[in-house]
Structure prediction request, 398 residues.
Amino acid sequence: MNDAEINAAKEHFGKILKEQLMRVEDMKASSGWMDYSKLDRLVIGVVGGDGIGPFISKHAENVLKELLRDEIASGKVEVRTIDGLTIENRCKQLKAIPDEVLAELKKCHVVLKGPTTTPKKGDGYPNIESANVAMRRELDLFANVRPVRIPEQNVDWTFYRENTEGGYILGSKGVDVNEDIAIDFTVATTQGSERIIRLAFDHARKTGVNRVTVVTKANVIKRTDGKFLSVAERIAKEYPEVKWDDWFIDIMTAKLIDPYRRADFKVMVLPNLYGDILTDEAAQIQGGVGTAGSANIGSRYAMFEAIHGSAPRMVDEGRAQYADPSSMLKAAAMLLNHVGFLEKGRKLEMALDLCTQFEKRIKMTGRSDGATGEEFGRYVLETVERKDLEEAWKKASS
Ligand code: IPM
Ligand code: MG
Prediction:
């Protein structure tokens, strides 16, 4: 390796350090949470995305609009379609999020987003950054909240995945130092760790669960995971009533599939990449990644989405209409709860429990031997509107 290569890498490192220091300053300066109840009009943006995205988003949008019919009619809520966040447009502009799309997103208070395709090295697309990752960063959506529930097994997990730092924040800013050495970076900041850990503890306290599990690999990744864990130790002191423990990601991954232990875990808080992986596992246990929704929350904006990808294979094979919209419907319920429509959010959640776990009058298989997303969307709508929804849900879940 020659001096020029080393110097280029050093210079690159200096530049990203400066950016990260600026981000820390922004976090320090950030002012409190958005209060949706004070808005004259709440603007909800709907982004279809790629692959099966536009199909499943459409069904979630329909249900959302139905639940908000009165608020939309009175102008208290506006549901707005945002176009242009497609893989074609992103590749054409070589931007993770085209400028005009980002500007539109910033005019909304909350966004319901279908999955977007993320190019990876060697798949023929230009190697642009993931739209998800860019959106989480641009809108500072630092908390990725992913609930997974299996009532009949007593499983009730809420994952608080750190959403802006870790291996993701500089995921597109690693260096190929020379032909032989590639280096990526992972970042943990005190401020970034504090805010996600605090949110997890707040949730545990507010819901009376009073239990938090911190997941890292601090025995090996000593600096960044070490920081995450020591920040957790400090924050935990502010919540004496919340019991907490820490686990390493490898054994945690095993424990989630241990039928004797898994129901013990309740609220889990973890760095970005571990959260990405563990929540796919958790969703699979619940019935597949298609069944889980996800909230990306920041103090100013929030975005709600499926936890899975755009499934281009389903589209190529002509099966997009059979894609399961449950994940997007869960995301819509989380959106409703987040902006304060708690009654509507709860209704949608109960309806989804009935449709996907208890009653299951319609079965989705992802293929033509199962129901279409449209049929499933209608089933959920009918269930939401049932007069006996509450009783039916209570009976089924007791
Ligand atoms: C998720 C997804 C994204 C992530 C991808 C699409 C970049 O897997 O939301 O979990 O890794 O965060
Ligand atoms: Mg993921």
